């Protein structure tokens, strides 16, 4: 499916609600759960969820939720998660990924990490909202707006970033791009009272964690 | 995929001797990061010098100031997650503090039959091959996506690998 058609699928408010819900979860979502979240009937949710799968916006898996197998274990439930595929559409056509990739390749070969980090830090400072970030909640709003999909961790003292806005580039040039990302976030969060930004990469997540400063945690 | 593992060599030219205080940031991270590697999903083996816990004393034809790091993994993704999605990434970010900028490719990977333990000579030979001829099924980098079958079907083998089989 063309990117524009896939993106257009999200025009429908019910689909959009379902998509946003599935994307925001840290687990795969059943039809029942999705239906409940959107306040619609299960069959209607199933219809829209499968439309989103057809468009490549969601992926699906079949698994028995009970964990049992064999006859009597029940029908496997269809589970949904956000697809890893990226969709972009620009009018008129523009391609920024190719030059970004080429520039990164050259910067990496020339070992311009330090220079790139300095530029990213300046960019972060400049882009910072006028209002200071005064805690995890404010940081969450700022990071959400920049596409990081921050999630408060169980201890409620750190934000884990479920999405890397530079994903494709960071897969190809991890050291350069993750170093840049850290510096950008350091710039964005500078002067944020009681918060610190640190690299703590984990599979499938953005490489950075935003947490309460050690000297702020009792 | 079960019949093959992925071997990887990476090398770095030290700016200072390892006992120089300017290398402390690097040397102090070695033990914790090796522990992360040993416990990483898909880790199989890494080169360790006799009586040591790492490979920092091993020298090759690449030079007296060149450190080598040789390891074996279940898959490319397992290796990738360790190198770029663990505490190891933060060390890489700071690599310019301790290592000279590379003038040539500094890492190489290749598929090996499961159970084979690569020698450091074989590894260096693969790296030199990559440097001289670019990526190919028997010597490639993270950017390339050669599969074990590609290596099996390639007629050419490095000298060191052929000599032992």
TrEMBL record, chain A:
Gene3D superfamilies per record: Winged helix-like DNA-binding domain superfamily/Winged helix DNA-binding domain
Stored InterPro entries: ArsR-like_HTH (IPR011991), WH-like_DNA-bd_sf (IPR036388), WH_DNA-bd_sf (IPR036390)
Signal peptide residue numbers: none
CDD domains, A to Z: HTH_ARSR
Coiled coil ranges: none
Protein name: Helix-turn-helix domain-containing protein
A Pfam short name: HTH_20
TrEMBL record, chain B:
Domain DUF3291: from-to ranges: 6-144
Taxonomic superkingdom: Bacteria
Pfam families from the UniProt entry: DUF3291
Protein's recorded name: DUF3291 domain-containing protein
Species whose genome carries this gene: Amycolatopsis carbonis
């Amino acid at each position: 499916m063309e990117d524009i058609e896939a993106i257009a699928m999200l025009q429908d408010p019910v689909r959009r609600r379902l998509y946003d819900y599935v994307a925001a979860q840290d687990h795969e979502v059943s039809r029942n759960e999705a239906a409940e979240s959107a306040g619609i009937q299960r069959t209607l949710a199933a219809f829209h969820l499968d439309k989103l799968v057809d468009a490549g916006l969601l992926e699906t898996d079949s698994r028995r939720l009970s964990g049992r197998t064999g006859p009597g274990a029940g029908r496997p439930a269809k589970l949904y998660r956000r697809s890893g595929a990226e969709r972009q559409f620009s009018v008129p056509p523009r391609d920024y990924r190719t030059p970004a990739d080429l520039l990164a390749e050259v910067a990496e070969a020339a070992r311009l990490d330090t220079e790139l980090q300095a530029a990213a830090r300046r960019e972060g400072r400049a882009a910072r909202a006028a209002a200071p970030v005064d805690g995890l909640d404010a940081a969450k709003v700022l990071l959400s707006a920049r596409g990081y999909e921050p999630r408060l961790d169980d201890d409620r003292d750190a934000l884990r970033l479920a999405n890397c806005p530079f994903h494709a580039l960071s897969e190809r040039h991890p050291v350069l791009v993750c170093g840049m990302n850290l510096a950008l976030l350091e710039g964005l969060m500078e002067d944020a009272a009681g918060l610190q930004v640190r690299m703590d990469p984990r599979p499938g997540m953005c490489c950075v964690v935003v947490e309460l400063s050690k000297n702020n945690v009792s | 995929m079960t019949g093959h593992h992925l071997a990887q060599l990476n090398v770095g030219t030290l700016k200072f001797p390892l006992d120089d205080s300017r290398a402390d940031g690097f040397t102090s991270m070695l033990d914790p990061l090796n522990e992360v590697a040993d416990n990483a999903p898909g880790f199989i083996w890494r080169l360790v010098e006799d009586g040591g816990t790492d490979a920092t004393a091993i020298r090759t034809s690449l030079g007296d100031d060149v450190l080598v790091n040789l390891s074996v993994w279940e898959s490319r993704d397992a290796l990738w997650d360790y190198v770029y999605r663990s505490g190891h990434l933060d060390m890489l970010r700071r690599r310019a503090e301790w290592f000279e900028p590379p003038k040539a490719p500094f890492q190489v990977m290749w598929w090996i039959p499961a159970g084979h333990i690569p020698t450091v000579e074989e590894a260096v030979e693969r790296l030199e091959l990559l440097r001289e001829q670019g990526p190919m099924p028997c010597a490639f980098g993270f950017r390339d996506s050669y599969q074990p079958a590609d290596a099996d079907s390639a007629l050419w083998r490095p000298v060191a690998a052929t000599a032992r089989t």
